[in-house]
Amino acid sequence: MPHKTFFWFMLPSALAMFLFIFLPIISVVVQSLYIEHEQVLIETENCGPFGCVPVVAVDTEATQALRDAEPLGRFNGLGTYTDRNHLAFAEIGAAWTGTESWGEFLGQVYNLPFYKALSFTLTFTFVVTPLVIVLGLFIALGVNSLPRLLKGPTIFVSLLPMIVTPLVGSLILFWMIDSEGILGATLQRVFDDNALSLKASPTLTWIMLLVYGVWSSAPFAFIVFYAGLQTVPEDTMEAATIDGASRWQRVRYVVIPYMAPLVVFITLIQLMDNFRVFEPIVGFSAQASATSLSWIIFNDLRGQDVQLFGSAAATSVLTILGVAVLLCPVLIRTWRDFNRKRV
Amino acid sequence: MAAAAHRRSTGLAVLSTGFVIFWVIIASFPFLWTLWGSFKVQADFFSRADWTNALTGARTIVETGGPFTLNGYGGAWIQEEFWRAALNTFIVVFSVVVISLTLGTLGGYALARSGFRYAFWILMLALVFRAMPHITLVSGYLLPFFEWNIWGYLPTSIIVLVAINQPFTLWMLHSFFLNIPKDLDESAMVDGCTRFQAFRHVIIPVMWPGVITTGLFSFLLAYNDFAVTAVLLSQENQTMVPKIASFLGSTFEEGNVMFAVAAVISATAPLFVLILFFQRQIVSGLTAGAVKG
Amino acid sequence: MTFPTRLAALSAAAILTGTTAIADCGISQGRISILSNDFGALNAVSNAAAECASDSVTVEINATTEHRDLQVAAMTPTPAEYTVAVVANSSIVPLMNENLIRPLDDLIAEYAPDLPTLNQVTIDGKVMAIAFMANAQHLYYRADILEQVGLEPPTTYEEVLAAAEAIRDQGIMDFPFVTNTETGWNLGQEFVNMYLGHGGQFFEPGSAVPAINNETGIAALEMMKALSDYADPDFLTFASNETQAEWEAGNVALAFMWGSRGSQIIDDEGAAPEIVAATMLTGAPTVAGGATPASTLWWDGFTIAANISDEDAAASFQAMIHGMRDEIITANNEEAVWLSAAYQPGPAAAGISATATSGTAPYPMIPFMGLMHSALGSELSEFMQGEESAEQALADVEAAYSAAAREQGFLE
Q1: Do C60 and B257 touch (CB under 8 A)?
Q2: b/e B238-250 (16+ beta carbons within 10 angstroms → b)
Q3: CA of A61 to nearest chain C CA: how many angstroms apart?
Q4: Backbone phi and psi for residue C346, each to the nearest 5 degrees, phi listed first
Q5: Cα dist from B5 to A250, B9, B14, B63, whole Å
Q6: Do C258 and B252 touch (CB under 8 A)?
Q7: Partner-chain contact B110 A9, CB within 8 Å
Q8: Does chain C have fewer CB atoms within 10 Å around its N or its C terminus?
């Protein structure tokens, strides 16, 4: 395709992404390199319905003068990236020299918010992604061998975990797994342990989030695989059958290789989405035991009175870098495919 | 596949069917539980005393006089005028799907047919774009949108959702177009068509399955979105999900959680119809598209 | 002046404003646009202000739980998207820091000369907000259960612990106590309450340097931990919705919850009548022999944007004063504890009144308090789970706060 035609075809889509994603990313990167001006503080008195108290306040005029002089703030380089609430280089260094054993060192690192979040984020990504793929494949194989009439409703039901608004979906599940709720109470009865609570123990909270992650993403893998199954050439399958291949052998040697490109596609999307895990943590109020990078961004920007834009920007850039690293193997593969296609 | 199915062992058939039944139960149970509970009062459905209250409706009988109540639905749809939010959602979702697919098919087609390296890098860049957490993007939009006085309107949110959705749409449609043989449009161009005419007369008629599948994912994104719509829309333009969130209450005041539950159930109904309707296309669409991804 | 005397003092003045209430608000023209949180009491005021709409006066309302995320961005441009921001004593701080709201002294002199000082929030000698309702966390107790164990209603946290122990001992309840301790804002708020109850100071005087890692901070944490031993093991996921449900289900006998939830707890929905009948609302307990209760006082009120025309500001001010007039307070008496002479305190207000009259401190209106609050919210849960020491938890809070305060320019 000539460059000019390509340009016109691509223009609307590229323009939308340029304006609403690329420019914001640039501004986020810039923002992460700056910190706010020094705030000029004055001592004053506040009075309200409950009496008067002496307090400090921001001298807005003096601070405004500083702001007008340098609208972006003070240049801080990578200072925000390396501070205690992000990569925490100084604290890691102190932990390294100040501890005797690996366990102690890791304990101190885990106490830092970024690394605590990273450990859950990575666990979630690497546990949920493969399980989603395997579960999705098995569901697809199962549904595919159902009688024709049952397929439609089964597909709809299978998609339910994906289509119910997560906002309320997790709220309802949150009550179901409560120690007084249907699932929580049943588990207590099964294990005959009245103190068993999915919400109280960090380990059980992690397991619960992982199970939820698999449950809510499996439909995506399922629908893609199910569609892929429809294209497995029938003559190949028949040939395999005639050669005496068992069902498992047919799946292993015919179906799976045929679906490899689908696995790449699902892996790509799932790695990215799971690395940005956020909704279940808020939905299940799990932040005491499990946080993620996206949750840290949320915590900086929402639900408090002061928004930490610089801090959120730095975490966002680190998230993008993390996704890029994760996707590298997949991207290299795509690059090879692309070059092969060009020839 | 059909031929193969005849020959497999009964044991495997039982196992396979059993697995599907198991999956159907765990996939649908929370939804069915919610459907049932939406006809109860909050003290039953969200009971901390005894979960069996949700089945028997003990408090529902005390508070409303019968074991089932339509209070949640009435409250959401009539008292809180949920239909306004539903209407706004319809406008947003419809526009997002149509615009995303229009931009995405043009772009995806170009990416699939271009042999130059920059096509690859555009795809890579799209992936990086997709990695950006939405919440950061949205916070960044606020100040300029207020400055330009475009905050709060439906078109603003629609364009933002379209843009956020473009990377996924491009990727999906690009792999779909790769699957349509090049000969089709190239032979049309040999016959004297321009590239766009070839696209219009030859590609468009065969691209529907892929487009519909991609459209389903665009639809779900726009339909379930909270991060963008909760912050970028003014109250009269609110869509369903932020409206549902507003039923949930705040630290200081109890919400009407049963309104939210009833609203969620109502919001799922059109999806049911939609999926049953498009089921065949979804399946054949993905077939054609993503397989050679 | 204490809270009740102030209330009494204003009642005479309010009779004047009450009788002069006018139907058309007396606004000739202007744009009124209100941003507020989304709950009943605020909506009542906003909707009453919206009555001022006419051919030449436009009124728009955006009541949303996301209001805090919008307010700064929305009020920065000229003209500001909103002419009125309804805030609390924590959420006014960012607007003050950015100089986005205007002093109201002139508007009060012109349009509401009788406005009681009780309603005027004065910062550095200038009235910056008009408060119209109050809120506080306080103690709820079950009279029947306390009677059963033969104890008086607790007035200190030490007595709360003793009562909880007695209830557990007699096998009435395993987890008799509950409060909002969800990791995040709620947990931070519990520490703020407990630390102020212990007489603590959050910062070095006159600066933004944190000062919580001390004996007082440790004592406050130890008390929170002691209380959590009597709370359901899931306590780190408990916010207002969960604690209210625990109460209504009859699972707890002692709770420290928001006063604004009172009217919903003692209504006929959700709980059995015998639980409602035995539910008593009382002031927040003191702790460690301190004189002031371990709680904070909150107000909600309105502010007027700085970046709008004087005409719009005057119109907005008049409309909001119209929105908080006596008829509105009377019609919505049960929605809140109103700071108005027209307000008739009902049983649901007993806890807030008792807390306010016993000298409880208002939530600190300090520019960097929000940063401290969020550091507390995210760094204390490991201590509460028993995974780290109180000293370590407080050191973590100070470190997290300092990093954020440096980024915001409060610390070097």
Answers
A1: no
A2: bbbbbbbbbbbbb
A3: 8
A4: -100, -175
A5: 11, 9, 13, 54
A6: yes
A7: yes
A8: C
Give me the mean pLDDT over the C59-72 stretch: 91
CA-wise closest residue to B114 among A338, A268, A265: A338
Count the neighbouring beta carbons within 10 Å of the beta carbon of residue A244.
7
Q: Chain centroid to CA C4: how far?
A: 19
**Average pLDDT for B128-154:** 90
Q: How many CB atoms lie within 10 A of CB B221?
A: 19
Instruction: Give the Cα separation of B18 and A259 in Å (integer).
Output: 24
pLDDT tens track for A38-90: 888 888 888 888 888 888 888 888 888 888 888 888 898 899 999 999 999 99
Two structure tokens written together for A67: 């702001």
For domain C3-134+298-350, give its CATH number from 1.10.3660.10, 1.10.3720.10, 3.40.190.10, 3.30.1380.10.
3.40.190.10
Mean pLDDT of B185-210: 83
Query: Using the 8-state DSSP alphabet, how is residue C298 labeled?
Result: E
Which residues of chain A register pLDDT less than 50? 343
Query: Which CATH code fits A114-342?
Result: 1.10.3720.10
Q: In this predicted structure, what is the pLDDT of residue C228? A: 95
CA angle A92, A98, A101 (to 5 degrees): 95
Name which CATH class applies to C136-296+361-407.
Answer: alpha beta
Which of A37, A39, A50, A187 best tests the C interface by mutation, with the highest count of C CBs <10 A? Answer: A50
Spans of all domains in chain A: 114-342
- Rounded to whole angstroms, what are the CA distances from C310 to A261, C30, C304, C323? 64, 9, 10, 20
- The answer to whether the CB atoms of A111 and C388 lie below 8 A apart is yes
- As a whole number of angstroms, the distance between CA C168 and CA C174 comes to 5
Would the CB atoms of C258 and B245 count as touching at under 8 Å?
no
Beta carbons within 8 Å of C121's beta carbon, 6+ residues apart: A46, A47, A48, A49, C89, C92, C127, C128, C129, C130, C131, C299, C301
Mutate to test the interface with C, among A304, A308, A315 (most CBs of C within 10 A): A304
Residue corresponding to tokens 């009407």: B256
d(CA A51, CA C47): 29
Q: Which residues contact B247 (CB under 8 A, 6 or more apart)?
A: B76, B80, B255, B256, B257, B259, B260, B263
Under the banding of pLDDT at 50, 70 and 90, the label for residue C24 is low
For chain B, where do the domains classified as CATH 1.10.3720.10 start and end? Answer: 79-290
Element of type H or E holding A135: helix A113-144
Beta carbons of C375 and C364 less than 8 angstroms apart: no
- CA distances for C383 relative to A289, B228, C218, angstroms: 12, 35, 11
The pLDDT of residue C120 is above 60 = yes
What's CA C168's distance to the chain center, in Å? 31
Output the CA torsion B274→B276→B279→B280 (10° steps).
Answer: -120
User: How far are the Cα atoms of A62, A156, B138 from residue A34, in angstroms, in the given order?
Assistant: 20, 49, 20
Query: Helices C215-228 & C157-169, crossing angle to 10 degrees?
Result: 20
Say which of B139, B234, B246 has its CB closest to residue C65.
B246
Q: What is the CATH number of domain B79-290?
A: 1.10.3720.10
Give contacts of C93 with chain A, Cβ < 8 Å.
305-306
Q: How far apart are CA C301 and CA B276, in angstroms?
A: 51
